[in-house]
């Protein structure tokens, strides 16, 4: 299957999920959330997959939620509700994934990205990795 916001590669029992919005530091939008949730469901059912590695394309792992969706949500309460529910579902989906999940953290990991790393079984971070929770500054945590 072809995806717009992620890359999925599988070989020898290992699945590598690469967040692929490098021009946005892999900020998570609704499309990416949907693709990841579908992938987690499919990989969870695949007996050939023994481990999942999650990483980011470019110079960052994941900068968190795509702020543009928050701006759109301010004008569209239904969209804001969907975004808020999706934020909660993602970390839970990684946490409940029944196979080991390894985070390969290669740069900025903030917001959603940092939250996901807490749900992974193991994280391996490069020397350039940086973790942050900007929601605390915004008073929404």
Protein described:
Helix 1 runs parallel beside helix 3, helix 2 (67-75) runs antiparallel to helix 3 and helix 3 (77-96) runs parallel beside helix 4. This protein has helices at residues 30-45, 67-75, 77-96, 112-119, 135-138, and strands at 6-11, 14-19, 51-56, 60-62, 101-105, 108-110, 122-125, 130-132. The chain has 5 helices and 8 strands; from the N terminus they run E-E-H-E-E-H-H-E-E-H-E-E-H. The longest helix is centred in the middle third of the chain and has 20 residues, at 77-96. It has one domain: 2-enoyl-CoA Hydratase, Chain A, domain 1 (Alpha-Beta Complex), CATH 3.90.226. The mean pLDDT is 89. The strands form 2 sheets. Strands 1-2-3-5-7 form a 5-stranded mixed beta sheet, covered by helices on one side. A 3-stranded parallel beta sheet has the order 4-6-8, with helices on one face. It is an alpha/beta fold.
